[in-house]
Design goal:
The complex is a heterodimer of chains A (about 230) and B (about 300). Chain A has a domain at about 45-100 and about 140-190 and about 205-210. Chain A has seven helices and no strands. By secondary structure, chain A is an all-alpha fold. In chain A, helix 5 (about 140-165) runs antiparallel to helix 6 (about 170-190). Chain B has two domains: about 1-245, no CATH class; about 260-298. Chain B is an all-alpha fold. The mean pLDDT of chain B is about 95. In chain B, helix 1 (about 1-30) packs across helix 6 (about 165-180), helix 3 crosses helix 5 and helix 4 runs antiparallel to helix 5. Classes of the chains: A mainly alpha (about 230), B mainly alpha (about 300). At the A-B interface, helix 2, helix 3, helix 4, helix 5 and helix 6 of A face helix 3, helix 6, helix 7, helix 9 and helix 10 of B.
Chain lengths: ~230, ~300
């Protein structure tokens, strides 16, 4: 009854959950304060933005899966396609958000959690409006966001591949993948507790705990999903 | 070749629909004061600012738009299975979603404002409900119809394996997260705080001290949509349009250049990487422009 394919699918689902959880820590979200240019990052919630990017990646992965099938090369293409779809969504969103910060609000993109941008070496503190904790999406946050989107797309794609190989139809696999994505993104969101600027933020150090929690949750989810598939 | 042209046409139409949907979604969230900037409208009476803004944060925008578009997609899908004309089904589905939207909008306003009436003296303005409900539901209908039509095109022409309601749900969640990430910043950081000088973020000490006076008389949320339609709404539309178009276009380029499925997929991925590199460079250029043009605060 239990063959090796089921074990592989269970492992894929567990790893996918851990990757999705890790992805959320990279995405620069300032929550409600960022919508008032009071904190650095994109002005929405962690789960919401990760889900938006992850689902765009999921759509890209699903289209690719219907074209290439589940060979090893096919799976690699599905995961890459999910990552690219996710990165395009988040990249365009961060860029347009940046345009509104710069031309609509008139602020300079500046990170609060680092003195100088580790990528461009630009000083950050003098450009922050007094009384706020930064605003906009400086380069370090943009790059961090793209890494997060890549992981989110790969995680979503991997979960979808596992579900398809368990024999679910694309419709059921897509629905379960959405629910599964939300579980792991919300776990990360609770662990972050509000806002995070990206990999340079001290809150990023919380990631290992979140990933462990997600690995356990995804393993339990995986068992339930496999029981559904039997 | 004919199939390719039809696919290109469907993709172009999807991009155009996404642009309209994004713009309408953002303006709806400005008239209805949904999403993150609504925290300020909610906070205002506690800071002594009695206002005439509409106040409805039904939930986060992605979840609420996921609901409306999925309702529209679900109804349309059922009607199509009964043999009703697809376009008519999509219109009826969007109409049902508009009623759901309207019901949530009214109950959210009454619930939120009444909750603040007793302790903070914020009145319930019935004329605000009557005057704002039309634009809220109207903008919502435009956004939902465009997205459910996009979902239909994705399902029938662009090769998406998911059923219509699921694609509709995903588009709804995506447009909500885009709208709350981009256009709402213009409403929250600029329109609500126009009495403060242009060119700075809103310090935490000023939170809740929103502008309650309009150009003439007292400000209501219809004025906000007028203001935000000049930048925030347009850019939100462009954002969603670009995402839908660029993501589809890279696949199409792959199909045109590639000889078989694998090479076309690899080309699509490489084109995607190029697009991302360009986005990163443009973002950096804007950052440098802002640093040089505006300078430091101290």
């Amino acid at each position: 009854m239990f063959d090796i394919n089921l074990i592989i699918s269970l492992l894929e689902i567990t790893i996918a959950g851990a990757i999705i959880n890790a992805s959320v820590y990279f995405i620069p979200v300032g929550g409600a304060p960022a919508a008032m240019a009071t904190s650095t990052g994109v002005g929405t919630g962690t789960t919401q933005l990760a889900a938006g990017a992850g689902f765009t990646g999921l759509l890209a992965a699903a289209i690719m899966a219907s074209k290439v099938g589940l060979t090893p090369e096919g799976i690699a293409l599905i995961l890459l396609s999910g990552a690219i779809g996710s990165m395009i969504m988040l990249g365009v969103t961060m860029l347009i958000g940046q345009l509104i910060y710069v031309f609509g609000v008139g602020v300079v993109p500046a990170a609060d959690k680092c003195e100088i941008d580790p990528i461009t070496k630009d000083p950050q503190k003098p450009y922050i409006t007094p009384g706020t904790t930064g605003h906009g999406i400086p380069t370090v946050c943009f790059i961090s966001g793209l890494i997060g989107a890549t992981l989110g797309g790969i995680g979503g794609g991997l979960a979808y591949v596992a579900l398809i190989s368990l024999g679910f139809s694309p419709a059921v696999a897509g629905t379960i993948a959405i629910g599964f994505f939300f579980i792991n993104a919300v776990l990360a969101s609770y662990n972050i507790g509000g806002t995070i600027e990206g990999f340079h933020d001290p809150k990023f150090k919380k990631m290992p705990n979140g990933v462990i929690a997600s690995t356990i949750a995804s393993f339990v989810c995986g068992i339930i999903i496999i029981l559904m598939a039997l | 070749m004919n199939e390719l042209i039809i696919t290109l046409g469907a993709l172009a139409l999807s991009g155009a629909l996404a642009t309209i949907a994004g713009c309408a979604e953002d303006l709806e969230s400005d008239v209805g004061s949904q999403s993150n900037p609504n925290s300020q409208v909610q906070l205002a009476p506690q800071m002594g600012n009695i206002h005439r803004y509409y106040n409805k944060a039904i939930s986060g925008e992605p979840v609420s738009y996921g609901l409306y578009v999925a309702v529209a997609g679900g109804v349309a899908y059922s009607l199509m299975n009964f043999g009703v004309n697809p376009i008519l089904s999509l219109i009826i589905g969007s109409g049902v979603a508009a009623f759901v939207h309207g019901a949530y909008a009214v109950s959210a306003y009454l619930g939120r404002i009444v909750g603040q009436s007793k302790n903070f003296g914020q009145p319930v303005y019935l004329d605000i409900i009557m005057s704002h409900l039309g634009p809220i539901v109207g903008h919502g209908f435009i956004a939902v119809f465009c997205m459910v039509l996009m979902a239909y095109l994705a399902n029938t022409i662009l090769g998406n394996p998911f059923p219509l309601p699921l694609i509709a749900l995903i588009f709804g969640i995506t447009v909500g997260s885009i709208g709350s990430s981009t256009g709402d910043v213009h409403y929250g950081a600029e329109r609500e705080y126009q009495k403060y000088p242009f060119g700075g973020g809103v310090p935490v000490a000023n939170h809740g001290d929103i502008d309650i006076k309009a150009e003439i008389g007292l400000r209501n949320s219809l004025d906000s949509s007028y203001f935000c339609s000049r930048l925030g709404g347009v850019l939100t539309g462009m954002c969603f349009g670009l995402i839908v178009f660029l993501d589809g276009w890279r696949g199409l380029i792959g199909n045109i250049i590639g000889k078989d499925t694998y090479t076309s997929s690899i080309i699509a991925i490489v084109v995607g990487l190029l697009i991302i590199a360009i986005l990163t460079i443009v973002n950096r250029k804007i950052e440098v422009f802002a640093r040089e043009k505006y300078g430091p605060y101290q």
